Amino acid sequence: MKQIILATMLAAGFASPVMAEDISLGRFFGACENAGSDTKTSVGEPCIIQSIINAASEQIDGVTVNTLPTDWGNYYDQLKAAYAGKTPPNVHVMHRYRVAEFAGTGALADLTDDLAGAGIDVSDWEAAAKAGVTYNGKIYGVPMDFHANLWHVNMDIMQQAGLVKDGKPVLPTSVDELMAQAKLVKEKTGKEYLIGDFSQFETGVRVVMSLIWQQGADLYNGDTATVNTPEAKAAIKVLTDLFAAGYADPKYNYTDSQQAFLNGEGAILINGTWVVDYYDSQAADPAVALKNYYAATFPILFKDKAAWAGSHMWAIPAMLKQNDPAKYAAALKVLAFINDHDGDWARTGHMAVRKSVLASDAYKALPHRTEYATTAGLARTMPPSKHYGAIQDTLNREFQAIWLTNKDVDAALSDAELDIQDLLDR
Amino acid sequence: MAVYGWSGKRLGQKSSAALLLTPFVVAYLAFLVIPFLNGIWISLHNWNLMAVAFDPNAKEFVGLRNYERILWGKNIVWSPAASPLVQWSAAFVLLSTLLLTAFGKISRGTAVLVGSIALILFVACGFHPGAGGRWYDRRFWPTVGNTILFVALTVPSITIISLSLAVLVNRESRAMAVFRTIFFLSQVLSVTVVTLIWQLLFSPRQGLIANVITLFGGSPIHWLTDERFAMAAIVITTVWWSLGIAMILFLAGLQDISRDIYEAAALDNAKGWRAFRHITLPNLKRTITLVVVLQIILHFQVFGQSHLMTGGGPNDSTQTLVRYIYQTGFRDSELGRATTMAVFLFVIMGAFSLVQFLLGREDKD
Amino acid sequence: MQSNRSYYWLVTLISLPAFLWLVPTLWMLSLSFQPNDVLARTTSSTFFGLIPLPFTLDNYAALFSYGQTPVWFLNSTIVAVGMTLAVLFVSTTAGYALARLSFPGKNFVIIFCLIGLMVPEQAVFIPLYTMFADFGWHNSYHALILPRVAVPIGVFLMMQFFKAIPRDIEEAARLDGVSWLQIFWHVMLPLARPAMTTLAILTFLYAWNDYLWPLVSAQKREMFTITLGLASIQTNFAQSEGLGRIMASGVIATLPVVVLFLLFQRYVVQAMTAGGTKG
Predict the structure, then answer these.
(1) How far apart are CA C258 and CA C263, in angstroms?
(2) In the prediction, which pLDDT does A13 show?
């Protein structure tokens, strides 16, 4: 037995003069078994990303990619444990809001000076996308998309309420218009105006944050929490007024809200870019009540242009750059390949981050993409913080307490401010 | 007796014991005790999960500060009416215990036990922030409260229901075997599946429960988003999920009670409830203690139900200690604080189990 | 003995709660046979959703299109069986010693063991993880099994059981000059079958559904357990858009354990063998 192992090891060592770099790649998005390597025809997040990875493995000389897919809910637990055990994957996906935490603890490789050499043109990235992967002036990753909240519109209901003009929905440009529209929809159709998961997922927080930014405020500033502000109250009041008047239901979770929208129970659903193609295909199904579907950019209700958007991005561990330059170079090639296929990834419904892709005809030809093209210009997220996850959960908890348990707005906001200040002080 | 090859005949009682204990003790030390001591060591530090991995010097020894930051607050004062309901009930229990002991109605052991629990409650619930003061972590104690409430609702329900079921289905027949399987079946599902099914069941829109209620003209309950029902919802889920093992343990315990006893008792006309009360219960004492202690330990560590069904909400009403530990350790990477809470959890689980042991022992006298 | 009539009453009495108990599982089974796009709109299409109409086998077919599903099953089986055997060995030996042998420091060992019962998993998780990483043990079967071997619950359970066995059985054997180890092996273990079966079911279940530890320890797909593998297939928001598939994976992952329980439950609920014990 020993001899066999030894012989195999020797054979492996001598037989391959050009060492192929095997890159391990960690990601969520779900698994896709027979994705192939055709990046133009694959369907759905898991298969599109896997086809791009498979193509990278096939097409990049001297690099093979070994995917380690894992489940969404616990991705970061696994990733952090892997870092703590000093065995992180060579390349991995993450959300932009985690950059401060990962880069801040020294986990991620600084890619700033190596991107151009790998064939990645940073100047082609949308400004907001570049900002998302930058921490303390250095670039720690390659952005792959924006995923923003859109207003998914049931055009038939809007039509009934007289809110369609030139084949486009008429969306509010102020809070008053919003309330008037909601009233109109209720009176004309008896249906809800706005649907969303306000009880579980972070939709509510993201809406409130967007409305706060639109007023020129933010939830924290450097090391000071600024949650209990008139702007925050005004933002929350938009939602609570809708809830109070019965124009929206705060108790839906993600599944409920989606079912309600597909079943034609409301005019507008607030949900991410990731469902555009899914709703498009559902609207084509005769069994589905939703017939005419439109994907609109999040409206500006106050003065400033801003709406929440996250980004998926790819990063490389710092220890790989330090310990294994050859493998680091190979990992960069994989990142460059993914960057080159930004347009393919955008077929998921996520917005591309490269200006050249956004301007391309192929991109515009994708269903509904032109309808929410302005979203890239609004994309905004909270200031970087190591505690982003905890801060977002705090806001989610307190905001939901306001509309689910009637917690006093002042009490909720001052509790949130206190908790966030504690986090920022740590 | 037959000859059994190597028989360890020369081994005395002590060396036999040592030999038999070795596998357990070795594994126990290596995979539980040492990591736990390591955890306690971590709790004395400001310790970021990732930063310390890259730079071992990134941790900072802070002594007991994590404990202070979690358990204590600024300007905390004590008063006998901070939480009147709990404190005054505790005071009432304490006084009654003293009186009953004075009149010799209850044994001294019980008195000391119940009395000290009441005293601890009375004292512990009296702390609150004074003027201008605050808890350093305002969510910690409410979270402890939620966890204890969850245990207090779940453990007795499961114990009583599973014991009744075990007694009822403890017969050799095909129908009973089917019943046993049905009640055990839910136990084999993983937490992800269980929480998903129940989330759907509880859904006010499409959930089975809501549909049935609507059918009879009621209006659906918003189980998971209503402060009044969220805890009940995760308790119901937990009872459904984890009753099977308790039932199995009771069934195994019932096997140990000899048929003769029941037959003898039947002659004295002790059947049904009387037989249960005077034969089954006393003989199951050991099993009951086992089941209760196991459940206290299991359910104090409730996590998935709260994490996946309610996300700790609404308004933190189902936030539990282990979820808090998990978030602090993994989401926030603050290992020092997380292990501090874990050590605290260890202490209260120990306290509750100890009480249960002592109660079990007490009743025997 | 019970008369037939009261027996039938009893069966009827338990039938209702038993049915209610079964409803969530039936629902899950029914959902697993319905198309995902229908479920995205409604989970109560036919008779509250309890009847799988429209019917499809696609969800199961999709699961088995993942080439590694059999490997994950094999891994789960190896880990669960390995863990169960190890736990049985460690628990019966220690449980017997603590219940029936007298030696100095016994009470200390018992208390020491009981204390371990209260250590929450979260307190040891990270130290254990880094320890295994230092040894380079991750992505292996022993990494999945070893941390779960020394369960104080198992020792406690076996100790309680052995304590209940009457002394006279042992004393008779001692008079015949049988050693303690022989008594353990030839007398005690056979008697312990119900308790061991209970412990085995508990451990096997635990191992089968174990999630967080395998998640961080087994990063390579070849080392995934079935629970982990099925979770890794899921897309984001799968509960809304791939509900049928999640339910199907729940059914698939659960089936082996149910079968196992059906095979072994008679050992749990079986009058003790001759010379059995009295309470």
Answers:
(1) 9
(2) 45
Average pLDDT, chain A: 91
Per-residue pLDDT at C272: 36
Which residues does residue A310 pair with via DSSP β-bridges, in sequence order? A147
| Residue entry with tokens 């779940």 | B154
Distance CA A424, CA A386 (A): 9
> How far is Cα B126 from Cα B91, in angstroms, rounded to an integer?
12
Contact A256 B205 (CB under 8 A): yes
- Closest Cα in chain C, distance from residue B304 (Å): 11
Interface residue A101 vs chain B (CB under 8 A): yes
pLDDT digits (tens, 9 = 90+) for B10-23: 678 889 999 999 99
CA-to-CA distance for A253 and C199, rounded, in angstroms?
A: 39
Alpha-carbon distance values, C130 to A83, B50, C151, C216 (Å): 10, 11, 20, 11
Q: Say yes or no for a CB contact (<8 Å) between A107 and B312.
A: no
By C-alpha distance, the chain C residue nearest B341 is C123
* CATH numeric code, B139-364: 1.10.3720.10
Place of tokens 């309901």: B85
Do A254 and C133 make contact, defined as CB atoms within 8 angstroms? no
Query: What's the complex ipTM?
Result: 0.88
List beta partners, residue A224. Answer: A221
Tokens standing for B317? Answer: 């009403």
SS3 label, residue A266: strand
Give dist(CA A153, CA C101) in Å, integer: 75
CATH code of C66-233, in short, is 1.10.3720.10
Q: Which helix (H) or strand (E) holds B72?
A: none
Of B173, B193, B257, Cβ closest to residue C279: B257
Task: Compare all CA atoms of chain A with the CA of C215 and give the residue at the minimum distance.
Answer: A78
Task: Decide if A287 and C220 are in contact by the 8 Å CB cutoff.
Answer: no
Strand A307-310 with A147-154, pairing:
antiparallel
How would you classify the pairing of strands A63-69 and B60-61? unpaired
- Each domain of chain B, given as residue ranges in start order, spans 78-135, 139-364
| Domains located in chain A, CATH noted | 16-146+311-379 (3.40.190.10), 148-309+387-425 (3.40.190.10)
Q: Kindly list the domain boundaries of chain C, sorted by start residue.
A: 66-233
3-class SS of residue B253: helix
- Using CA coordinates, name the residue in chain C closest to B14: C103
Cβ contacts of A73 within 8 Å, gap of 6 or more: B308, C231
